[in-house]
Amino acid sequence: MLLHKNEINRLKSKVEEQGMTLIPLEIYINEQGFCKVSLALAKGKKLYDKRESLQKKDMERDRARDEK
Which residue from 11, 14, 25, 34 could staple onto 38, CB 3.0 to 4.6 Å apart? Predict the structure, then answer.
């Protein structure tokens, strides 16, 4: 991945100030050992979203346990 200096600074500022995360999506490695990385910026879940996800996961786990 080739980025200009201002693109790197923009990504860096979003990660540091806004609390976003850089996530590698794809990694390509060629015969010479060089690699390319596709990146994405992502925002984390809010606390209430995490609680909902955990409750759904627990309910599915309990349902699977009951079916056995």
Answer: 25
